[in-house]
Design brief:
homotetramer; 422 residues; alpha+beta; Four Helix Bundle (Hemerythrin (Met), subunit A); three-stranded antiparallel β-sheet; 9 helices; globular
């Protein structure tokens, strides 16, 4: 017996909103923009749109919708990102070589899957609902993650084009003076971090577990462009003593002299944004820096990065609000509000690199089956970032959320907040 | 005083026909197909359309049309292929990373340049006409060369897509039995080859010059798929004794076992064509082989490749007719006509690899200025091919035409004809 | 006033013993063996002999011995390993391209520095002694680290030679039955790990600090070859579900099917050892595996690797004894002694991969100046190993000792011990 | 019946002299110098010593000396250079990773083969002698080719060492004023070049064959350092118009600004020689330039390189004398003698790049069997050089001798002589 009850209605509505937001992100694009992949790290926008759709098709429709027929069998190869236990995926670095399926076909694919999902949800019985609901949650969170990647990948793809395309007109924002950097202090002791089983969380956020923390202090806000320019002007990129060895190698090889997207003209710093090339605003948070740069900055400043446990403990009572993707700026703002207790810009604006390598929590268990590959297999050589960014949807953020990237990556909206021992 | 005389009218009509044929070639494409570059050797279709336009703009409109304004100044960087004395070109391997300009903008660019060209021709005086005319000839020949590349690049780009897109429906052709291979004999002596100053030729075809040729014989037709399969079945790709050293290295590294685009299923050979995957027809000419493969085949067969002087001397009296791009097959046919003296399939179908490295003719002079870079600077490490292919327009072919590619390249319609000493 | 007191005498004797042990390790080599570098990870033996000498010269003789003249100024460039704040080092990957200085010259260099060191120690006053002594400690520990690398690098260099050179005759060892794997249990609670300021330790082992540990159990011994073969025979190298993503990429790229140095002949496993190719002994500990393999084995077995805090806490009361380099086997043995409490083979035999990324301890401080580059700058993308190996000198080992390598490295004597949650 | 006649005696003596000259070349080396391979193009000196020995062993002793036993079976793998039909060779780029066999063992190997060769020659009957003699000739010529490589490879290996080792003290030479560049003129007509069957020649020099030559002139001497510096000071390395496309790519990638081994200090040019770093002497011939540089120089000068047929025709009456390896300078000299008709420095000093790609002569036949791989399989992508150098033994040189290298190679003693059309 099918149950199109309130719960289902809410879930379906949420599903449609999230699916719709992906479309909204790509709405300013030309068809050509959907195709390219400027570096292996980024994916063509049409690939993101298809892959998220494949996710629902593969993990929900195929196993749970009787008689379901895939939209196109080859898509199961083309749009499998990295699920090796599901089947050999199409090589990542070659996603930008696929002219077909066309953008139009991919939108048809999305429509087809959305219709089938609607149909499944509207007709499924309670038992099936209980099985589907957690998968749907993951699928929606997954689509939100790719929404962030859509934004950062479009930005990267646009940035390397000598024509410097503009994604949207600059959005005017409120600017306030940058508050003085102040230290918020925390006592030593055993703390509990991680996510309970209540509400959605990824497997990598669970379980709640204990850690010992020494006394420490955390800055009341992340580092600004102005502060980062001081580091640069102080020889930050020329002195090996600030850098991890592998970071220093990249600085020399890639001739890094500033964050990604920055360039200097006539003594002024400019950066490429989704609204084209803009003057760097000193009061905005610095972003598009690698872990190596965040770490070097902290060492230069005489401080350090926080661990992810310190960060999560310190931010326990912050409200999830800030400069998120739903506001549509897609860029950090210089608006500082002091109300949110002492801490500012905890969520949104820029992801904050922590000093914590991405490893499993004590007693954590990956999901069973193929979805166990979602997070666990990447727990090596990557660093944790916290807090979300201006490209993260606000409904996607949680205190316990663990983002992770290799320490040399810079195309995400990544910045830093200082910490120190007491 | 402007002279819109008969000569100009004919030239303008020719210009428009050639420009129109480029558009015809791309007409079956989706917008996404215009953007990609599957390997550095190929270029995105939209790049070809823009680059040929840039050629007219740069070498004719800018210097000869007073008050002319470039369509977009950045295009002079983006669509300069390799003219280093004109300015640093945009890197070739990264042509597939340019979403913009859009396909639509590129068609506008073509229209703009076509209008200005028309206007220039319609209004120019006799003196200007005399200066423009040879440049226009080169520009049109240049566009025809890129028409061939459009066909071969589209084929390559399509071939690597697991969805195996189809460019056009298979075109039905007449099939006749393959004539027995016979040897056409030529005496020793001093021969003259190369192009006179009458009519258009590239600088690399000039001047007429003498060579000594020993007695030799040339096969009456190129090698067929059936003959090439014998080579393969005889261990052609497994025995180093047939191969040049650098050819053998590639065979092992790339695991070559057949021509490009071939694959074996259930004991049958198939190849990817512009009409999708098709069974290999034994009576068609073998194509998509490298110089190394052509040379290895000839050694296996106990013969050799002809030099380009032998080829040109032997073909002196052949009519320029055959399976050309204007017929729209874009694939070799199994139709053999014995009328054309003793030689068959001299022109069209497949380019024939010669044993001649691409070097300047005695006393040859490259064009003055930037256009001197057109041919001369590539005279190293490449081999000459003769005769045109099913992707060459018939009006582009000449007896003296020298095509050239690196000896490992296979994405052109390249085959071979055997020669032997007497 | 100079003080050649007892303390100095002891230190000098220790210095000479350690310097002598380096010579002992290389004594079986031909001159040619000193020169080569089979992969960038390893260094030529003569480079190790010179670099350790440069260390004493640079950090002690140059600053503390008045009137000291370097043996050869170019050596300061050639034998600086990675101290960027001291000066640009000669590129690591090119160490095997240096025929000169000759081996003979390098032994002269060692003698020169040893004489000057002796002279300095014999004549220095108490104040200088106090400054020198900690540097000398580091220098000796540093030389001991390079002794281990000498052994592992000689092994690697020999292994790739088709002549399979033999470093020494097989050393006969006692063999006992492998004891059943048993779990030693530990309670939850706050533990203290790390090194106090008493006695020597590297900066990366300090300070003592607290951690919270959940209840856990540790295997009473590391994993054996026999157990590892079960993993292999169970499809260990074929099933992606056991592997971290980057590990799986390497397995496929490098076609790993067994530990480094193993090869199968007629159904039997053999491995290359410093005594040539030998049959794999099932009762010996598995070694020459990467972190990825250790981690995959643990996942296959249903367990996990221990954290370095768990390991250190669990081994707190073990005696530092075992199969060390001073015994000269340079290979794990199958001798198990049950006396050492419950734990066996804690020290010596093989380094044990932990699940802990190599990061700084809370409140740790790198050494001041150039020696701060010794450890701290490598704290990224590497994993901690504990316990020493058959190539470590027993006087070099400590409970708190942290070794670290990238997770894909296999040329060290690295193995694993299982852990589990309770 | 054995015939130790005069012919045999002479041949054996020649064999011993040639074998002895290899030893003389390496006599200044330290053992360490024998081992290294600074780039894949060069080989370790001990490899050359062993490979030339393997050549006699493989092509003469194994087939013709009954009961002969190889010195070491693995050597047949290690010291096979590139004879694929003989068996898979050890990879070329890894020759510098072989510490073993030791230098001492390789000298033993040489002695062993020399003894067996002596024994074979002393005892063989006339029939065997007739079979062996041509192989022995090739073997000796082959050893002489490797003698030249020994010199150039030792030079390269030394050059990259920051200690700048010295192979020998500078040899004092006579210096004369550089004669004015004059043009020697040649008429048009059919010429015959190539080697007859009289006396030794490689298969690539045969047969004598006809070519048509237009009128041309050849410079009376090669280009000097002084002239080359003019090219450099005139922007030779900065202007793309002088360069072949692939040459220009290398100029930019490798940042070429001068010949190999040159560096500028305080406005003066120095070059690394086998006698250490020396001031560039303007009156010596320029050397260590690639074909690309030779070709660019000629274009800058308004002339061209000669074809190999022009060169051979023009030099028909020159005596084989000059600055050869037997004189032991191993460097071009500034001694010009006008006696040798009009042409100077035709042989010795520097190899002269021609404009001729290395291709087979009409009707040429490679040797039968494995030795057919000696020359023929390299006839692609290489350019012919003529005349020998200061590292060639005088007894190795012939008018018809064809040397060949890839156009980007610079570590040989390669220079150029100008030609022009008349």
């Amino acid at each position: 017996m099918s149950v199109m009850n309130h719960q289902t209605t809410v879930l379906l509505q949420q599903y449609k909103q999230i699916r719709g937001f992906s479309k909204k992100i790509v709405s300013p694009l030309e068809i050509e923009d959907y195709v390219i992949q400027a570096i292996p790290d980024v994916s063509p926008p049409k690939w993101h749109l298809a892959h998220t759709t494949w996710f629902f098709e593969t993990f929900i429709l195929v196993p749970y919708l009787e008689g379901f027929k895939r939209f196109n069998d080859t898509y199961d190869y083309l749009f499998n990102s990295y699920y090796e236990t599901h089947g050999r995926p199409y090589p990542r670095h070659a996603r930008g070589l696929l002219a077909r399926p066309s953008v139009n076909e991919i939108f048809q694919y999305r429509d087809y899957v959305d219709e089938q999902m609607t149909s499944l949800l509207e007709r499924c019985d309670a038992e099936t609902y209980d099985q589907i609901q957690p998968l749907l949650e993951i699928g929606m969170q997954h689509e939100q993650q790719h929404q962030e990647l859509l934004v950062t990948d479009i930005k990267y793809n646009f940035s390397i084009n000598p024509l410097k395309p503009v994604y949207q007109h600059p959005v005017s924002t409120v600017k306030t003076a940058v508050p003085t950097l102040e230290w918020v202090r925390f006592d030593e002791g055993i703390v509990e971090t991680g996510h309970s089983d209540d509400g959605f969380s990824f497997d990598n956020e669970r379980p709640i577990h204990k850690s010992w923390l020494d006394r420490f202090a955390l800055a009341n806000r992340p580092v600004t462009n102005g502060e980062y320019i001081s580091f640069m002007e102080n020889g930050g990129y020329e002195k090996p003593e600030y850098w991890l060895s592998e970071g220093w190698s990249i600085v020399k090889e890639e001739q890094w002299k500033a964050p990604l997207y920055w360039e200097q003209k006539d003594g002024e710093w400019y950066s490429f944004t989704l609204s084209g090339v803009q003057k760097v605003v000193e009061d905005e948070l610095v972003t598009h820096i690698s872990f190596y740069e965040a770490d070097a900055f902290a060492r230069w400043a005489g401080y350090r990065l926080p661990t992810e446990m310190e960060w999560e403990h310190a931010m326990k009572n912050q409200r999830i609000e800030g400069n998120f993707a739903d506001q549509g700026h897609y860029h950090p703002t210089a608006e500082y509000s002091e109300e949110n207790n002492q801490m500012m810009k905890t969520f949104g604006d820029v992801w904050e690199w922590t000093s914590s390598p991405y490893v499993p929590y004590p007693k954590s268990k990956p999901l069973e089956g193929t979805l166990g590959e979602y997070n666990a297999k990447f727990m090596c050589n990557q660093m944790v970032l916290r807090g979300g960014s201006c490209a993260t949807h606000s409904t996607h953020m949680r205190l316990t959320y663990r983002n992770f990237f290799h320490p040399d990556k810079r195309w995400q909206f990544s910045g830093l907040r200082l910490a120190k021992d007491l």
